[in-house]
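Q: What structure does this chain adopt?
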Amino acid sequence: MAARLAEVVRMTDALHVQGVPVERRWSQRRTATLMVEIHYQGTMVANCQTLNVGLGGAYINCVSWVLPKGAEFELVFQLGDEHKVRHRLHARVIRASNDGVGVGFRDYDIRAFRTLQEVMRCAAQMAANPSQVA
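A:
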């Protein structure tokens, strides 16, 4: 088993070196549109919108993106207007391109984790029943 795992890692690294994109996500992503704020070193630097979200990260559409690959920041969002609870997720820029930014979440609390689970559940329901709004 360990030999097979080592072989898969070598193949993945070889593909990456050859320029072939390799999926490294540990969690599934769902199409989900959330308005988010990007906070860097305590200051809000951008308002953006997610294109998809997973437990491990998100893909963000942001016209005014300014942070480089590897930068750590805080992603802030809220769901609905009920309690005005603002969720904060520590994140890192994984990749940035002209069409968006891939980010990975880091060290989030149980409330944020449960909120991400709810986002994923609602997105799955919307995908299964697009004519119904949950």
